[in-house]
Structures are given as structure tokens and as C-alpha cells.
């Protein structure tokens, strides 16, 4: 346990030093530099510094959906739902739309695209059935989905359902329900900050 406490202290110290370095740079730090610090705040659970850095980024680039979402996620991970609502309201006011990540598969020469909780695929009923079957089998084997990353104010069962409906899980399930699939590639889009 002491080992993890030391790692936490070192991470906090590193974040503090990084921010001090940014403030002392001879040139103004750019958005990418501040964005790296915001991602580190999220990773290491420093919501106070994350709040300051996130606000700075939103001030520098108010139309960037990723900064709003990451700051909202930092608040949500600490259960600060009023702050989450404030950020989402700010996004509405500024007309900033969250661009969803997606997963794509190419099977038999056809590209299929999936978004999280997507219901638009022609074979969605069979894909949903496969998801349920896969979830049951995984649970029987002892798998428990990590619901800590579901940053919504919903109960644990709903969080598990959300975790099982990520775009990549939908894409993989679609492979299992298809007959004679020649799979060319699976691709997940990545957002950049």
C-alpha cells in the first residue's frame, strides 16, 4: 500500500512541477502543451489542477470539444455533478458539439461504422443479442467491467450496460453474427487534443 501512496505523491509532485515549468517558459505555452497537462491531471486524479488547466484551455480554444469533455470527465470522476452540468451547459451555449469516437470494420469489401450505443446498423437486433450473450459468458468466466470510466450519474447496472455498448464491442459483435466473413481490418478512431 505504501508503494501506491508514494506513486500518488510523485505523480502530484510531477504535475505541480510541470505546471510551474509552463508558467516560467520564455514563450507562452501552446494549446498542445496545456492539453498534455490536462490529460495528466485526468490520469492522476488531480481535479483541482485539472479545473484550472481545463478552464485555461477552454479560454484559449472555446470551440474544442475535447477540452470541455475532458474537464467534464475530471469533474464526473470526483462526483462533482453540478460542475459537469455547468460544463455541458457551457458547451450548449457555445454550440460546441461532442464528436463521438467510432469503430469501423471492413468485412467482405463493405465498411461498417459503429458509434457507442449505436442502433442504426441493419443487423442491430442480432448484434444486440450477441452482446448480451458475450456479456453473460464473460461474467461466468469472472469478468467484471470497469465502470469507473463511465462518468455518468447512473446506477451500476446501467454503467455496465454502457461499457458493453462501446463502438468497438458493437463492431466485434457484428463479426460474430455474420456468416462467412472475410475480415480486412478493424479500426477505431482516436481523438487528439
Automatic annotation (TrEMBL):
Keyword set includes Signal: yes
Keyword Signal belongs to the record: yes
Signal peptide residues on this chain, from the entry's feature table: 1-19
Pfam families per the UniProt record, alphabetical: DYW_deaminase, E_motif
Domain DYW: 142-177
InterPro entries, alphabetized: DYW_dom, E_motif, PPR_At4g14850-like_plant, TPR-like_helical_dom_sf
Superkingdom as given in the UniProt entry: Eukaryota
Sorted UniProt keywords: Signal
Similarity field: Belongs to the PPR family. PCMP-H subfamily.
Protein name in UniProt: Pentatricopeptide repeat-containing protein At4g14820-like
